[in-house]
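Structure in, sequence out. Go:
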């Protein structure tokens, strides 16, 4: 059984499978709550496990909680350029029909996040023109995530096989932000 592909513009790829009609796809790099296929299914309306290619690495960026999610009422992940850092995440190959739902989830229409095209490494291969999302108006300093958001991010990282050391770093970073938040809340109420 053979599968062939051809590249289109804007990171789209057209895959042809003998048993299916041609379907246009795009590569998507998730680094926050979208790493969790179960949570991503909630927004996209269909099972996304089958679209996971695997753990992926983006060089030249670092994570930070520079967005206040109105839906979750807490800090949400963003990426900022940093030449000495890397971000681990999950590479998906999504059908183009899910593009608008993904934009909606990332609040593109409200100016929350914007699309950015990047190059990532996954399974020993370089993928070009991969879609990801970055915050449009970044907060001046990081805002702590809530417990629910932390759990979804970690569940996605572990489920999709991100390196154990990176998962611990992510956990420690989120925990440190939460501890700082609770400490400042106690000081304000005293």
């Amino acid at each position: 059984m053979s599968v062939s592909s051809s590249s289109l513009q804007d990171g789209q790829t057209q895959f042809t499978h003998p048993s299916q009609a041609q379907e246009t796809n795009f590569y998507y790099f998730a680094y926050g709550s979208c790493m969790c296929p179960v949570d991503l299914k909630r927004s996209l309306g269909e099972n996304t496990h089958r679209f996971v290619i695997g753990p992926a690495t983006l060089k030249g960026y670092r994570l930070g909680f520079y967005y206040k999610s109105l839906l979750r009422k807490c800090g949400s992940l963003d990426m900022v350029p940093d030449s000495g850092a890397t971000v681990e995440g999950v590479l998906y190959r999504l059908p183009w029909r899910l593009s608008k739902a993904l934009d909606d989830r990332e609040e593109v229409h409200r100016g929350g996040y914007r699309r950015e095209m990047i190059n990532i490494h996954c399974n020993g291969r370089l993928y070009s023109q991969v879609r990801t999302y970055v915050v449009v108006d970044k907060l001046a300093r990081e805002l702590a995530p809530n417990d629910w958001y932390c759990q979804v991010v970690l569940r996605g990282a572990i489920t999709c096989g991100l390196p154990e050391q990176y998962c611990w770093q992510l956990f420690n970073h989120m925990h440190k932000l939460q501890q700082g938040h609770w400490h400042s809340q106690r000081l304000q109420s005293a």
